[in-house]
Design brief:
Layout (H helix, E strand, L loop, with lengths): L30 E2 L2 E2 L35 H9 L7 H11 L4 E5 L5 H13 L6 E5 L3 H14 L7 E4 L5 H7 L6 E4 L1 H9 L8 E6 L2 H6 L3 H10 L5 E6 L4 H10 L4 E5 L4 H4 L1 E7 L4 H9 L7 E4 L3 H13 L4 E4 L5 H13 L4 E4 L1 H4 L9 E4 L6 H8 L10 E7 L3
Parallel strand pairs: 3-8, 3-9, 4-6, 4-7, 5-6, 7-8, 10-15, 11-13, 11-14, 12-13, 14-15
Antiparallel strand pairs: 1-2
Helix pairs in contact: 2-3, 3-4, 6-8
Amino acid sequence: MNTNTKRRPQRGRTNRSKRTFNPHNKRSSGRNRGKRVMPTFDPTRFINKNPIEVAEETYTPKHQFRDFPIDERMKKTLTQMGITTPSPIQDQVILPILEGKDVVGLAETGTGKTAAFLIPLIELKKKNIKAITLILTPTRELALQVDTELHKLSKNFRFFSTVCVGGTNIGPQIRGLKRPNQFVIGTPGRIKDLIERGKLPTEKINSIVLDEADRMLDMGFIHDMRNIMSSIPSQHHTLFFSATMNSKTKSLVNDFMKNPTIVSVKKKDVTNSIEQDIVPYEHSNKFETLVEQLNNDGFSRVIIFGSMKHSVEKLGKELNKNGIRAESIHGNKNHSQRQNSLKRFKSGQAKVLVATDVAARGIHVDKVSHVINYDLPNTFEDYVHRIGRTGRGSERGKALTFVPQIH
C-alpha cells in the first residue's frame, strides 16, 4: 500500500458561504462535528495597491566557485551552465557541508539552494560511492526537479539516482533501487513505504537532505519524516532546508541534528512588492465574476488557487466550457497528467492553471501575470506562498483574492 495516500483530510470542506473574517488572522484549530473550521482573515490584508519597489540587496560573496575545494570537472560543468558566482546560500553552506557539518539553511525556493547542497554532496560522494544520500521533498514535482539538477551537475561522474514518489507505479522504483544508487530522491510517504517493504537499504544511508521541510510538515508528513530519520544509522550527515522555522521544524532540528551550522538567506518581502487587491463577489455569481476578471486585458498567464481537489477539477472544466483555455493540477491526477497540464500551461497552450496548494508546491513558472485566490488560503503563510508565484525576480505581477460580500 502506498502510504502517500494517508494524508490529512482535505482542507476546506465546510460551506464557503458561512465564512467570516477575523481581524486577528488566527487560524482556527477546533473542529465542528468532524469538519475543519474554515480559515478566517481580515480582508484588508489582501490589499496593497501601491507595491513598493524593493531592490534586492547586493550580496558580495566571500568565495568564487574556483576557490572551493571541489573537483575540476564540477567547476567546468558550472562554467558551462553559466553559474560563475555563488548565490548567498551557496556561498555560505558549501564549505560547512564539505566539512561534514550538519547544516540548517533557511532559504526560499529561487535562492539556488538545490545546487547549494548538491554541489558539495557530489564532491563528498566521490569518497564513498557505496553510500546513499537520501533527499526528501514535499512533492513529486520538486523531487523530479532535484533529480534533473543532479543529472546536470553530476554529468561528468558515474553516479546513479532513483526517484521514489507516490502517485506512480512502485514497481519501476523498486527495480531502480536494486542498482547501486548514490542518490535516492523521494517524497516521505513513498520512501517510508519502500523502507517498510525492505526495498531501500537504510544501513547504506550516510546523509539525508530535508528539502522544503516546512512544506513537508504543513502537508502532514511529520510522522513519516520522524519514522524515516529514526530508521537510518545514527552516524549520518543531515542537511535541513526550510523557508521558515516554527516550533515543529525546531523540534526536528533539535531531535535529529548535531550542533548544526545555521544559515539564513531571506528574499524580498513579496507582500510589499506585489500589487494585491480583493474581488468582492455574491455567492450566486462567483464563477461569472471570475470569468469577467479573466477576460480583462493583461490576464495573460494566470494561476488560480482552489481549496479542494474536486472543486479545482470542476472549475478547470467550467472555464474551458466558457472559452477560457485552462488546465488543472491536484492530487487526484497522476504524475503524467500533472506534468502534461503543467507543460501546456508553460507553453502557452493554456492561459489558466487551476491548482490546489499541495499540487502547486515546487512548481515555478515565469511570467505569471496574475495569481487569483478563488478560495481563501488556510494560513497567511500559504497566502504569501501563493502570491509569490507572480512578480518573480524583476517581473511585475498582481494577486487578487475573492472575498464574499457581507450584507
